[in-house]
C-alpha cells in the first residue's frame, strides 16, 4: 500500500505555485517534500482510529493533525467513557471542536465518535479489507492516587482513590488466504499482580484460544520502564519482570487449552472470566474445591470420572483464580504459586512487539528501550516460554 501511495505522489512541478518563489533552505529537498506528501497520503487513507485511552501521549498527533485536510470524516472508536475523555480535547478550549457524535458532515464534524461496547465484536471497513475488532476492558492504574517519589506516600487528588483508569485491548481479525488471522493490541496496561482491579486474565484467555487455534502470532503490548523502577512508581505500566510474569499466565492457559478438543476450544468464551469472576474469586475457589471433592467421591464410588476436557477446564479456572490473593500479596504471580507452565516452550511461535517505552532524556536516546529489551531477553523465563520479543522502529514496515 505504501508503494502505491508513493507512486501516486504528484510531480513537484505540478504542485508548486508560481506565487511563491522556491526556497533554498537545506530542509527543502525532494526527499523531504515527498516524505511530507506521503505522510499526508497515509493520513488521508486512514478511515478509523481505535482509541485505547485518552492520555495525551497517545492522542496528541491525532488532535493536532485534525486541523489538516485529510480526506473525509474519520471514526474515533472506543468505549463511551474513553470517548468522553477524547471529547474534552475537542471542546473548543484546548482545541477547536473538530469532533462530533453526529454524522451530519461539515467542517466541524470531520471526526466522528463511534461508541462500542466491551467484548462486543464490530467491523472496521477499509477500501482493501474489513477488520473485525473485539475490545476488552483493562486497567491502567488508579486515577485518585498519586505516589510521592520522596516519601513513597500516596497523595490523594480530588478523585475517588479506588477509581481505576480504563484502557482497552483490541483483538483485530482479518482473513488471509481463506484463513482467519488476528493480532492483539494492548493499550497502556498494568500487571494484574499489583492492580487494584485486575482485568488481564480474560484477555489472556482469548489470546490463548486464538494462539492454540493457530490464528494469533503477534501481540503488541507496552513495557514502559526498566526493572529498577519501583512498583509504586509504575503509574499503571509494565516493566520487564512483570511482563514476563503475565506471559507465564498466558503460557499456563495455553497448556490447558492444548488439552481441549478443537470444537470445545472454539466455544470457550473469555467473557465468562470477566471482572465479576474476580470479584467473586473466593466463591470460585469454593466451587473449584467442591468440584474436586465431588470428583474424589465419584472415583471412590466407582463412577465415571470427569472427562479430560472437563478436567482441563477446571484446571484453567483453578490456575486463573486459585493464586490471585497470593499474587496480590507478593506483587508477582510467579506462575500462580503451584501453577507454572510445565511443557517446553509453550509460547513458541509467538512474537511480543514492545510498543510503548518511557525514554529518559537524561540517559540518552533509546537507552531505556535497549535496556528493557536486554532485560526481557536475559530473563531466565524467556527461553523457557519460547516467546520472541521485538521492538519496532518508527516508520518500519512489518508484515505478519
From TrEMBL:
GO terms for molecular function: 3',5'-cyclic-AMP phosphodiesterase activity; 3',5'-cyclic-GMP phosphodiesterase activity. One of its GO terms (biological process) is cAMP catabolic process. Residues 14-26 have a biased composition (Polar residues). InterPro entries: Pdiesterase2 (IPR000396), RibonucZ/Hydroxyglut_hydro (IPR036866). Residues 1-28, 284-304 are annotated as: Disordered. It comes from the Eukaryota. CDD domains: class_II_PDE_MBL-fold. Pfam families: PDEase_II. This is Cyclic-AMP phosphodiesterase. It comes from Wallemia mellicola (strain ATCC MYA-4683 / CBS 633.66) (Wallemia sebi (CBS 633.66)). The lineage of its organism: Eukaryota, Fungi, Dikarya, Basidiomycota, Wallemiomycotina.
Amino acid at each position: 500500500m505504501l508503494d502505491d501511495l508513493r507512486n501516486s505522489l504528484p510531480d513537484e512541478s505540478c504542485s508548486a505555485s508560481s506565487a511563491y518563489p522556491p526556497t533554498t533552505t537545506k530542509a527543502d529537498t525532494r526527499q523531504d517534500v515527498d516524505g511530507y506528501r506521503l505522510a499526508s497520503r497515509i493520513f488521508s487513507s486512514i478511515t478509523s482510529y481505535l482509541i485505547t485511552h485518552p492520555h495525551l501521549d497517545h492522542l496528541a498527533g491525532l488532535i493536532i493533525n485534525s486541523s489538516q485536510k485529510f480526506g473525509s470524516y474519520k471514526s474515533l472508536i472506543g468505549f463511551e467513557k474513553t470517548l468522553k475523555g477524547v471529547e474534552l480535547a475537542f471542546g473548543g478550549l484546548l482545541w477547536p471542536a473538530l469532533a462530533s457524535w453526529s454524522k451530519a458532515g461539515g467542517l466541524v464534524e470531520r471526526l466522528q465518535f463511534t461508541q462500542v461496547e466491551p467484548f462486543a465484536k464490530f467491523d472496521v471497513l477499509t477500501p482493501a479489507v474489513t477488520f473485525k475488532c473485539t475490545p476488552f476492558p483493562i486497567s491502567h492504574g488508579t486515577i485518585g492516587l498519586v505516589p510521592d517519589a520522596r516519601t513513597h506516600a500516596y497523595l490523594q487528588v480530588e478523585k475517588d482513590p479506588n477509581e481505576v483508569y480504563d484502557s482497552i485491548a483490541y483483538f483485530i481479525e482479518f482473513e488471509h488466504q481463506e484463513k482467519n488471522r488476528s493480532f492483539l493490541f494492548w493499550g497502556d496496561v498494568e500487571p494484574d499482580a499489583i492492580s487494584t482491579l485486575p482485568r488481564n486474565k480474560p484477555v489472556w484467555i482469548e489470546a490463548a484460544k486464538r494462539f492454540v487455534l493457530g490464528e494469533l502470532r503477534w501481540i503488541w503490548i507496552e513495557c514502559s520502564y526498566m526493572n529498577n523502577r519501583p512498583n509504586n512508581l509504575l503509574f499503571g505500566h509494565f516493566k520487564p519482570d512483570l511482563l514476563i510474569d503475565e506471559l507465564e499466565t498466558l503460557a499456563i492457559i495455553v497448556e490447558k487449552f492444548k488439552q481441549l478438543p478443537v470444537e470445545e476450544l472454539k466455544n470457550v468464551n473469555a467473557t465468562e472470566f470477566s471482572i465479576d469472576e474476580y470479584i467473586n474469586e473466593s466463591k470460585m475457589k469454593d466451587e473449584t474445591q467442591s468440584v474436586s471433592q465431588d470428583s474424589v467421591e465419584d472415583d471412590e464410588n466407582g463412577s465415571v470420572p470427569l472427562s479430560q476436557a472437563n478436567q482441563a477446564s477446571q484446571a484453567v479456572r483453578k490456575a486463573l483464580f486459585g493464586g490471585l490473593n497470593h499474587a496480590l500479596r507478593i506483587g508477582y504471580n510467579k506462575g500462580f504459586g503451584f501453577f507454572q507452565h510445565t511443557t517446553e516452550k509453550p509460547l513458541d511461535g509467538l512474537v511480543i512487539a514492545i510498543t510503548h517505552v518511557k525514554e529518559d532524556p537524561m540517559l540518552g536516546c533509546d537507552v531505556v528501550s535497549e535496556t528493557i529489551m536486554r532485560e526481557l531477553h536475559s530473563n531466565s523465563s524467556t527461553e523457557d516460554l519460547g516467546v520472541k520479543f521485538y521492538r519496532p522502529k518508527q516508520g518500519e514496515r512489518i508484515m505478519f
